[in-house]
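A.,

Following up on our hallway conversation. Structure tokens first:
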């Protein structure tokens, strides 16, 4: 497996991957996109969406054929140097809270307005999500 941050010009390379497995996900050219590849095939992906000085971890996806191999952990470990203490957030499904906790994310309610507004918009759509923030002093390890 090979980890890679895509160059901005390469961002469109993930669109077919998302279209196949997560069709509602819309990567954009401003995002920093991390991938894991098996040979030249993308098998896992996650994105950091800049929101001013903040980042939103989004679009975490592992190909169904590769699940159960700890690739979600691997991609987050590679991405972690880009996570900023109390400036990187994610909206997680409740059953994934422990997964994200292992990478330094904890449930939080005190967040900047830009993140809060996005989170509330998802909640209004009826999505059950947790608002998690990265806290590098809270890492439990894997």
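Then the amino acids I'd put at each of the 142 positions:
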């Amino acid at each position: 497996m090979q980890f890679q941050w895509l160059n901005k010009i390469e961002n469109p390379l993930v669109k077919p991957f998302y279209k196949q497995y997560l069709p509602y996900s819309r990567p954009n050219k401003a995002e920093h996109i991390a991938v894991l590849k098996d040979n030249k095939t993308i098998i896992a992906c996650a994105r950091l969406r800049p929101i001013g000085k903040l980042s939103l971890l989004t679009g975490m996806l592992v190909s169904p054929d590769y699940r159960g191999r700890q690739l979600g952990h691997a991609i987050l470990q590679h991405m972690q140097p880009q996570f900023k203490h109390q400036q990187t957030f994610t909206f997680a499904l409740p059953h994934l809270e422990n997964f994200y906790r292992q990478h330094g994310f904890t449930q939080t309610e005190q967040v900047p307005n830009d993140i809060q507004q996005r989170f509330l918009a998802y909640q209004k759509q009826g999505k059950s999500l947790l608002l998690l923030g990265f806290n590098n002093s809270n890492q439990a390890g894997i």
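The two ends are 19 Å apart (CA to CA). Curious whether your intuition agrees with the design.

B.
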